[in-house]
Specification:
The complex is a heterodimer of chains A (338) and B (685). Chain A is 41% helix and 19% strand. Chain A has 338 residues and is an alpha+beta fold. Chain A has a 7-stranded mixed beta sheet with strand order 1-4-5-9-8-7-6, with helices on both faces. A two-stranded antiparallel ribbon of chain A has the order 2-3. In chain B, the strands form 8 sheets. In chain B, strands 18, 22, 23, 24, 25, 26, 27 and 28 form an 8-stranded mixed beta sheet that branches. Classes of the chains: A alpha+beta (338), B alpha+beta (685).
Chain lengths: 338, 685
């Protein structure tokens, strides 16, 4: 039978080529050559038209067997030089590492800012904007920092060519907001501040601060304690120990620095807290009546509190980062940890 | 400031241990930052806030400890008797003050036949605790009085003062002085000096001169006790790059009530230790003593500000401990403020004193009533879109960076950006931070370089931050938010996938997803020119005919200037533009009711024909029944004639009204093929 002879010829050729193939590529070529859409087997099958009707079932059977044989041959041969991946996969090696996609990470300073703002947000503080480039009025005068005060010197504040300055504290936002709004006011503001400090492990000429303040009738020092106490518990944990310590800021009076018990040594004193047992986390106080006078809010009617904290410092404390420069170098091995 | 615990005991009977005293001081506002043991003495490092220069002495700290603990304070007789006293205007020294603003008062006292020599051990030890080495008994006594009372003193060798005169004046240009540290310093009129009849003999308030210093052969001395204007002293310190224990105190302000008393204290010690005797009356030149001021406090204010009720008697007691002599009339208490408490001027200052001594820890905490949902004019409007952008980019695997807003003009130049309209600092610390950046690109490229140098292979970064531009018209600097994306390096492979370099289309994909996610859908991209970007690979995102962002491949020479030796891709977009176009509201679109049918098509077209041309032809021809068009293959090269490219698409057809049958789809697909052939001269393969 001419048709079957042709098929047998194809089978012989295929068997030889498959056996002789020395790598997966050659084997794949053979696969296509014989079993492909335009392959020799496919081609040969077309010859079935010329087979007498009675022989067609047998021819059909033969074709199927031939296909199976060649497929099997290829499979068997394939096992000898499987690509690493399919070989291991077929061994069901479930200990191979999973295929991972890269995760992106929010910068730790942003993460810290977001967490802090969220906590105050729950207490009704709304985030506002305030410029970084400021005038002496907003950065000093209206914050009750007198002319000739050392902090106004070029040693402590960056000035730009037109005589304006880069704010050295986010308290400028108090003036900006109170100029525009009448109490009740309850806002929070995060942003950059600048000071001409040489860069080292704990200093930077630029860093981030968060400022918050609340003004209304009947706001008292005890409210300041309550709000900041709530914040400390939410951010540092319910068991946090905190203390309010008298301090001085020109724009608040009375003023307080807020410490939390060192979470490494729990108040015993260690390297992290410079053996004080306490970590200073923010500055705060009742808004100085003089500040109210500048923004034309009557201090005899309204009172308010304000607080400010260094985001970099809190972020470093929270994550145990020992060098502020890491925050601005942006090494991806660092960024991926948050 | 350093404070010896033993020394404090001179002023009060301290029965408590050092730790307890430290607690008292810290909780009344004098934070102890460190404690060292020096010869069995607890030496405390105390942070004194700038409003309390009166605490820059042992006496000052003792007063605070006394107020906090209730243990009364005792002063040396010489101090007690001479506090708030004045000397004679016609005393034994001829003193002229030529600049009364810079030197309001100068007390000079002559002591003769002193025996300069070693200092007694107890005094040396005390100075040692304060971190000062012993020089000789006279100098040590002036230092001792300074630390004890906070009033800087200086002793001159009287016999070396020309004409035995003291003139307080501005230095003249060309004058100079060798200070006791042996440095020759040239002076000018910014600097206040103490001069004799001929030349400057001391830099006022900062340091004495070598020529007139106390030596072993000194017999007669002049003790200076004066006060100087804080600003004058501070400026002179800056000018000369010189500071001392004296200038530290003058810069913050010294107690005028103590000027004469301190002199008396020094005289007493000189008599005792160096056997000198005072000649004539001490001279006292300058202003009259100011009267002690009175401040009145309404007791109701305490509750209003602090939220605590303190009994009037307790408040009186607090003021008594502070030596404020309170007098109460009903709800009003009037106090008399001692000269050293320059910080007490208004009722709020007294409320602070009550709070401090009552104890911040005893003030109860309460949560105020909050005002919900008030809107503010300055509300941060970009917050929502910024957070959305962050979320999307992080999901896509990008890492957020935060870089410095100050940079060098050189970095901007390297970007190829023209350096007009830069916001320049007048007092930069270095050329690395001399301007405020006009673009986020320079710091992005620096960051890519930093990471490439550290063999971090895959860099997909973004920054949301401000840029700064000087508006020449208004003369004001403007700050605006921008988004910057930077991609560079190699997507590492794994045991299934091959590694590959990042390219333009990785960045484009990120931008497409980002824009889609914030609801910006009607945009087109256009080739553009950008100083930092390769001409053939730099693209504007255009919405409503307005460019609102740029992205592309960084020019090779620009990359090289940032030490980047591989291809880098960046984007920069103003957030305000995005915000105005964005729509963060999500609305639900019903899922398709009828199935879609996919058909592949492979075409050969001229290289000049863009994917977007092909896309629009397909879309137009299929009468709204095309749901998606995906390119799954692009090939140029062997087997394809030159100037041509082969593209393969999968087109998805679907109707919203019914199930499309095979015949319809075939016809549609045929129409698309015909149109591609006719309109783009495409060959169907």
């Amino acid at each position: 039978m001419k048709f079957l002879d042709k098929l047998k010829e194809v089978e012989k050729l295929a068997a030889k080529e498959i056996t002789d193939s020395s790598n997966a590529e050659e084997l794949e070529k053979a696969n296509i050559k014989y079993l492909g859409r335009k392959g020799l087997v496919t081609d040969a099958i077309k010859g079935i038209k010329s087979v007498p009707k009675k022989d067609k079932p047998a021819a059909g059977m033969f074709i199927n067997k031939l296909k199976q044989k060649i497929t099997l041959l290829i499979k068997e041969k394939g096992k000898s030089f499987k690509t690493k991946d399919t070989a291991l996969f077929e061994n069901n090696d479930i200990t191979l590492p999973g295929i991972k996609r890269e995760l992106g990470h929010i910068h730790p300073l942003v993460k810290t800012t977001q967490e802090i703002i969220e906590i105050f947000g729950k207490m009704g503080f709304k985030a506002v904007e305030s410029p970084e480039i400021e005038t002496e009025y907003y950065n000093f005068e209206a914050l009750n920092i007198p002319k000739n005060h050392p902090s106004r010197e070029t040693f402590h504040t960056f000035y730009i060519e037109n005589g304006d300055l880069l704010r050295s504290q986010t308290s400028t936002s108090q003036i900006r907001v109170m100029e525009k709004e009448k109490p009740p006011i309850q806002v929070i503001h995060a942003g950059k501040v600048y000071r001409p400090d040489a860069v080292d492990a704990s200093h930077s000429f630029m860093f981030y601060q968060i400022e918050g303040f609340m003004v209304d009738k009947g706001i008292q020092f005890s409210d300041l304690k309550g709000v900041l106490g709530r914040f400390a518990k939410e951010y540092f944990g319910e068991n946090v120990k905190m203390r309010f310590r008298p301090h001085f800021f020109p724009f608040t009076e009375p003023s307080a620095e807020v410490d939390i018990a060192c979470f490494l040594c729990h108040g015993k004193g260690c390297r992290v807290c410079s053996h004080k047992g306490w970590l200073e986390v923010l500055g705060s106080g009742m808004i100085n009546p003089r500040v109210f006078e500048f923004v034309k809010i009557d201090p005899a009617v309204y009172t308010g509190f304000a607080f400010g904290m260094g985001v970099d410092r809190i972020c470093m404390l929270k994550y145990g980062i020992d060098d502020i420069r890491l925050l601005y170098e942006n090494d991806v091995r660092f960024l991926k940890q948050f | 400031m350093r404070v010896s615990f033993d020394w404090l005991k001179d002023f009060m009977e301290v029965k408590m241990d050092a730790a307890k005293a430290q607690g008292f001081l810290t909780m009344t506002g004098l934070e102890i930052t460190a404690v060292t043991d020096i010869d069995g003495d607890h030496v405390m490092e105390i942070e004194v806030t700038p409003n309390r220069p009166d605490c820059l002495s042992i006496l000052g700290i003792a007063r605070e400890l006394s107020a906090a603990s209730g243990v009364s304070i005792k002063l040396p007789d010489s101090v007690k008797k001479n506090f708030m006293k004045k000397g004679s205007s016609k005393g034994s020294v001829k003193i002229e003050i030529l600049d009364k603003n810079a030197c309001p008062r100068y007390v000079g006292c002559i002591m003769k036949n002193v025996k300069v020599g070693p200092t007694p051990k107890w005094l040396v030890q005390r100075l040692n605790a304060m971190g000062v080495r012993s020089v000789n008994n006279i100098v040590d006594i002036t230092n001792y009085a300074l630390f004890e009372l906070g009033q800087p003193l200086h002793a001159f060798d009287l016999d070396k003062l020309e004409q035995k005169r003291i003139i307080v004046r501005r230095a003249k240009k060309g004058e100079s002085i060798v200070t006791i540290d042996g440095v020759n310093r040239s002076l000018d009129q910014n600097i206040l000096v103490i001069a004799d009849g001929v030349r400057p003999v001391a830099v006022a308030g900062i340091m004495g001169g070598k020529d007139t210093e106390i030596t072993e052969s000194t017999k007669n001395i002049l003790i200076e006790s004066a006060c100087f204007d804080p600003v004058v002293i501070r400026k002179a310190c800056r000018h000369l790059s010189l500071a001392s224990e004296s200038s530290y105190r003058f810069e913050r302000g010294v107690d005028q009530g103590m000027i004469f008393a301190s002199s008396a204290r020094a005289q007493e010690l000189v008599k005792e230790i160096a056997r000198g005797r005072v000649v004539g009356m001490p001279s006292d030149a300058g202003a009259k003593l100011e009267k002690e001021k009175e401040v009145t406090l309404d007791l109701n204010e305490i509750q209003r500000i602090l939220g605590i009720k303190v009994a009037a008697e307790d408040i009186k007691e607090i003021f008594k401990r502070l030596h404020l002599n309170p007098v109460r009339k009903k709800d009003m208490i009037t106090v008399t403020v001692p000269s050293y408490r320059t910080d007490l001027n208004r009722d709020i200052d007294l409320i602070e004193e009550v709070a401090r001594l009552y104890g911040y820890d005893k003030v109860p905490s309460r949560l105020p009533l909050f005002t919900p949902h008030k809107t503010y004019q300055l509300e941060k409007k970009t917050a929502s879109i910024e957070n959305e952008i962050r979320k999307i980019l992080c999901r896509l695997g990008l890492n957020e960076i935060m870089t410095y807003a100050l940079t060098s003009a050189d970095a901007v130049e390297r970007l190829g950006i023209t350096a007009e309209n830069l916001v320049r600092l007048r007092n930069p610390m270095s050329s690395q931070q001399e301007i405020m950046r006009p673009s986020l690109l320079s710091e992005m490229l620096e960051t890519l370089n930093w990471n490439l140098n550290r063999k971090n292979a895959l860099l997909q970064l973004f920054e949301l931050n401000k840029v700064y531009i000087m508006n020449k018209a208004t003369g004001q600097a403007e700050e605006t938010m921008r988004l910057c994306i930077g991609m560079c390096g190699n997507k590492p492979g794994n045991w299934k996938e091959k590694p590959r370099d990042m390219d333009f289309f990785d960045l484009k994909g990120v931008i497409e997803i980002l824009l889609d996610s914030v609801g910006v859908r009607d945009y087109r991209i256009e080739k553009t020119q950008h100083p930092s970007l390769k001409e053939s690979m730099s693209v504007n995102i255009v919405v409503n005919n307005k460019p609102c962002g740029v992205f592309g491949e960084v020019k090779e020479d620009v990359a090289r200037k940032f030490d980047i030796k591989r291809k880098a891709y960046v984007a920069e977009m103003p957030i305000d533009d995005l915000l105005s176009l964005a729509n963060l509201k999500k609305t639900f679109t019903a899922l398709p009711k009828y199935p879609s049918v996919k058909r592949d098509i492979a075409i050969l077209v001229d290289d000049a024909i863009n994917a977007s041309n092909i896309y629009s032809v397909i879309k137009e021809e299929a009468r709204g029944l095309v749901r998606s068009v995906d390119v799954f293959d692009l090939y140029k090269g062997q087997q394809i004639q030159e100037g041509k490219k082969s593209l393969a698409y999968t087109i998805e057809y679907r109707s919203d009204e019914r199930t499309l049958n095979d015949k319809e789809v075939n016809e549609l697909h045929k129409k698309v093929q015909d149109a591609l052939m006719k309109r783009l001269s495409a060959q169907i393969r």
